[in-house]
Every structure is written in C-alpha cells, then in structure tokens.
Amino acid sequence: MRRQEVEERLGRLELPFNAYGVDPYGVSRWHLGVVFEVQAFFYRNYFRVKCQGIEHVPARGRAMLVGNHSGGVAVDGAMVVASCFLEANPPRLAQAMAEKFIGAMPLASVWASRCGHFTGLPENAQRLLEDERLLLVFPEGARGTAKLYPQRYDLVDFGTGFMRLALKTRTPIIPFGFLGGGSAIPTVANLYGLGRALGMPYVPVTPYLLPLPLPVPLEIHYGEPLVFEGTGNEEDSVIQGYVEQVKARIADIIERRRHERWQGEVKP
Amino acid sequence: MRVLILGITGAVARRVAMGLHARKHTVVGIDTRPWPDAPKGIEVHVEDLRKRAAEDLFRTRRPEAVVHMATVTSLRVQGEERHRINLGGTRVVFEHCQAYGVKHAVFVGRHTFYGAAPDSALYHTEDEPPKELASFPELADLVAADLYASTALWRTPQLATSVLRVCYTLGPSAQGTLATFLRGRRVPLVAGYDPLFQFMHEDDVAAAIVRAVEKRPRGIFNVAGPQPLPLSVIVHQAQRIGVPLPLAVLRQLIGRFGLPRLPPGALNHLKYPIVVDARSFHTTADFQHQYDEIQTVQSFLAANPPPPPRREQVRQRLETLGVIKR
User: Fold this and answer.
1) What are the C-alpha distances in Å from B49 to residues A43, B75, B140, B150, B294?
2) Which residue among B191, B193, B229 places its CB closest to the CB of A22?
3) For A15-31, b where at least 16 C-beta lie within 10 A, e where not — what string?
4) What is the pLDDT tens value at each position of chain B, 326 positions in all?
5) Cis omega (within 30 of 0) for bond into A90
6) Coiled-coil regions in this chain (chain B) (predicted)?
C-alpha cells in the first residue's frame, strides 16, 4: 500500500524527469521512490507526524520553507520533505540546502543530490527558486542541530542569506515550526573533535550514546506565507529586521503549539 | 566568409569544417596531422601552427574568422611540449589575428576548467573563474590558454573574441575525454560517488561552433546541450559495466588491467559534478541542440558497441589463427 501511494504521488510530482527518470538537476525518480517509501514509514508509523497548515505550501511555483532545527540529526528536514510529498496536493518536492560536508561524503552525497538536496550555496538556491522549485532552509544552520535537550525549543541566531535571496528572487517565505525533534534525539553533548575527524561539524551524543531517534510524536506547523518587498541589496539593519520578523513568527508558532499541548487542547 | 580552422583534423573540427563549407564559407585548415580524404573545397595544410608557414597562411589567405581548436587535451601528452603547444600556440594565434586583420577569433575550451569540488555550485556560469588548478595541475596549460584567450576581449577590442567552454562530446567518432573513458567494456567508478556528466552530440558541438562563427558573439560562453545525466546512468545506457572501486584502490589500479590512464586530479571528476549553465550562449548565438541526451548516448552505443569479454576475444583470436575450431 505504501509503495502504491508513493508511486502514485511520484507520478503526480511536477518535475521534468526524462526517459531515464532523471531531471536536469540529477534528481532521480528511482532514488525518490526508495527514500519516500522509507520516509513514509517513519512519517506515518514511527514518528506519527502531525502536520498542520500544509495548504500554505503553494501547489506550484517558487517558495521558501523556513523553519527551526530540532534534533541532533536531520530528522526534521526529512520529515518536512516527507510532509510536502505525502500531505500536499499535488505533492511537492522540498529541496533542502544541505551542509557542505554532506557533498564530500561518499554515498550521502549521491543520495542527497539524487533526492534534490544540494550544497547550501546561494547560486544553487537562486537557480532552484528561479526554476520555480520549493526550497527548504534552516537559517540556524549547524548551530541549530547542535542544540542540547534543555534548549530544544530555543532558536539560535538566524543567518541573513535566505532573506536577501527571497527578496532578490521575489520568493514568498513559508515559516514553519518543528516540534519534537529534541525529544526524539535527546542530545546531551556534542563531540566536536570526533566530528572534525569524521568530516562533520560534530557528533551528537544521547543518553543511550548513539544519535538514533526514538519513536516520539513529531509536529510540523506551517504558517501563512510572508512576503517582503525589496531587492536583496538593502542595508544589513533592514535585512536583519525582516529576519527577526520571520524568527518571531517561527518562535510564535512553536510557543503557541507548546501552550496548546500544555493546556491539553487537541487540535488537528 | 573565409574561415581558418586550426587543428582541423580533430573529430569535431572536421565537422565544423564541413558545416562551414556546406554553408558556403571558404574553409582553410591547419594541422600537424593530415586529412587525406578531406572534402573537395576544404584546403588543408599540414603545418605546425607555431612555424613560419602557418603565419604565411594568415598573410596570404587573410581569413576573416579563425577557429582555434589546436590545443592538446589528451593527458598522455605532458610536460614542456604540451605547454608549448597549448599556451605558445594560443599566443601565436592571437598575435597573427591582430597582425593580419582577422575580425573574429573563436577559442574552443573545455567546461572542466571550472573544476570539480564538493562545495561548487551545481551549474557554473561564465562569471566564475576557472579554478581547476589546485586539484588538477595537469590542466594548468589549458586553463592558462583559456584565460589568455579571454584577455583578448580587452587587449584587442577590434578583434571579436568568442571563448567557448564546451562540455564533453559524445557520438559515433568515440573521440574525446568521455568517449575514451567509456570505450572499454568495464568503466571504473569511485565507490560512493556518482557525479552528473554533461555531454553533447559531436554534431551539435560542431553546429554550435559554426553558429559562433556566423553570429560572432563577443565574450565567454558555456556551450552545452541536453540535460546532464549521472555517470552510472550513462555507463548503463552505453551497455558498459560500471566497476565501483574505493578511491584508494582506484588510485593504484588506474592505467592497469585495461582501466584507462588518468592523472590523480581527474579522479575528482569521477566524484563531483561539473555542469555548466549555457543559457547565455543559447540566447546570444540563437543556438538549439538537435540531439537529446538519449539520442546522444544511443549514437555512441550504435557506433561503439561494448567489446566482447576477454575470454571471447582470446577465443576469436585463436580461431583466426586456426589453433582451435569453432
């Protein structure tokens, strides 16, 4: 059933695959099929992801999903990508801007790029947006995934590159809040030395040592699109102001949902 | 128009010559290799570009356009001689162009000059500098020749210069870097990596150069046709057997056991993609490729089926010698 659903959704994905099942960016239909089948299991059965506001993700055309990092490894990114594929109609491929070390890693680089997740460079992001793709950005970067369990709902400083790009390409920003990643991978420490040795920023450590995610329910809440006017060449103070608005919106989504859970309200 | 093609006997250059000849241009060519069966009407001179006789052709024929394809790209030729041909030759070409009133010079370079790296943009634009030198010093002379040609844009503004950075060619002639790499039955790959490869049918490459000669676009242009494909897909569709090997093992085996000989820097090209954005050339030269990626791979396969297994080759040879009977 899961395979059928993934195949049906892959058929509705509006990407220009050629006869070999590859699009101009090297995104491969076969690789997507394998990955989404695995992600569908984790999304539906393991993490039982609750997704709200998917209607804010446009059916087609350029858009930038901007949200908070939650969890020591990329569970948040994988589940956001899965939500756009499994919940949106028509399904959309959210293409993440990956950390540079992924591009240098064997296997990881192949699977990431075949699934449309390219190194987070402004050139890559701009081209994808100009090609009317859906971009997934975590402006907290690697500092965001390095949050320890007590800081799991905090937001660290946002980069400003995404905002300049959004202004330059006239792209709407869809803010989202991701909840539960910190509990799924309760990071108690980060090993930066070991990470450097392995070519990664750090290695997260959980109370059970390995950064394997626990079957904790996760939540994704998409907010209404934010549209900013400008050219992307504005003063830093102006850009920083816009970024703070996006950050406040994401913090608001997270806080509101935490409050609702604390109050015991159950909302879809 | 009178067009002088330098390095006319290469697979693509011959197609350029025939394309220009078919469009009623006067074509003169220079190469150190002969072209015995050159079509009537195409004048071929077996000369060294750097010698006096070549300069005489500039003086006597007075070409209006020069297409410079006389660079050595094969990595088998190394050292001083290669530098002399690629850099010295390119310098001579632009000096002659200036001295003898050539109106347009086309330098045909390669897209690999941009370099393969994990943190490069997927699609390279002409604004980027060629930065392959750090990891692939064997390409230094070619990159330098490309940059020297590019400086003609401001050094000699009266000479319209088109620097074309052309992606890999593939087609029936099986010449060129990618075609040579795919020629054998087994193709080495770096385990854990599968870069995108961008290629064009050799007829399309020739058509693009002909277009550049006629349209005279001034500047640096990436030339590409259909969309890129992962190397593993190309290998599979060309009916070759991909052999993924760990990088450390591949470094030791390269050039042995029938695997192609590659310098260490070239291995990066088997790990990371080099893909170019050719929209500028398409717009400026009004060029459209005719062969898509599928037709291009098929045309290569049709002309170059995979060699039979080694055992079969030995058996055929023994049968030919009469040692064994079928």
Assistant:
1) 65, 20, 21, 20, 37
2) B229
3) bebbebebbbbbbbbeb
4) 999 999 999 999 999 999 999 999 999 999 999 999 999 999 999 989 888 999 999 999 999 999 999 988 766 666 677 888 889 999 999 999 999 999 999 999 999 999 898 888 999 999 998 877 777 777 888 899 999 999 999 999 999 999 999 999 999 988 888 998 898 888 889 999 999 999 999 999 999 999 999 999 999 999 999 999 999 999 999 999 998 999 888 888 877 776 667 777 788 899 999 999 999 999 999 999 999 999 999 999 999 998 888 788 788 888 888 887 76
5) yes
6) none
Length of chain B (residues): 326
CB atoms within 10 A of CB B151: 12
Q: How far is CA B242 from CA B46, B64, B238, in A?
A: 40, 47, 10
Q: How far is Cα B58 from Cα B92, in angstroms, rounded to an integer?
A: 11
Q: Model pTM?
A: 0.90
**Interchain proximity A118–B122, CB inside 8 Å:** yes
Residue A67 φ/ψ, nearest 5 degrees: -150, -175
- A205 forms bridges with which residues in the sheet? A189
Do residues A175 and A193 touch, judged by C-beta distance below 8 A? no
Instruction: Centre a 10 Å sphere on the Cβ of residue B160 and count the other Cβ atoms it contains.
Output: 18
DSSP A160: S
Q: What element of type H or E holds A112?
A: helix A108-114
Where do the domains of chain B lie, and which CATH numbers do they carry?
2-311 (3.40.50.720)
Q: For residue B255, how many C-alpha atoms fall within 13 Å in the half-sphere facing its CB? A: 10
Cβ contact (<8 Å) for B294 and A20?
yes
User: Which of A145, A152, A159 has the alpha carbon at shortest distance from A203?
Assistant: A145
Q: Which helix (H) or strand (E) holds B18?
A: helix B11-22
Tokens of B85: 């041909």
| ipTM for this model | 0.88
The distance of A20 to chain B (nearest Cα, Å) reads 8
The token duo for B100 is 């003898």
Chain B interface, best mutation among A17, A22, A128, A135, by max B CB count within 10 A: A22
- Any idea what DSSP says for residue B259? P
Q: State the amino acid at position A72 in one-letter form.
A: G
b/e string for A113-140 if b means 16 or more Cβ within 10 A? bbbbbbbbbebbbbbbbeeebbbbbbbb
DSSP label of A52: E
Interface subset of B 209-228, CB within 8 angstroms of A: 227-228
Task: Provide CB contacts within 8 A for A222, sequence distance 6+.
Answer: A51, A52, A53, A54, A56, A57, A65, A174, A175, A176
> What is the C-alpha separation between A219 and A52, in angstroms, rounded?
8
C-alpha dihedral, A158 to A63 to A20 to A106, nearest 10°: 0
| Token digits of residue B122 | 């997927």
Task: Please tell me whether residue A178 adopts helix, strand or coil conformation.
Answer: strand
State the best of B227, B275, B292, B294 to mutate against chain A, taking most chain A CBs within 10 Å.
B227
SS3 (DSSP) at B276: strand
Q: Cα torsion for B110, B114, B116, B121, to the nearest 10°?
A: -130
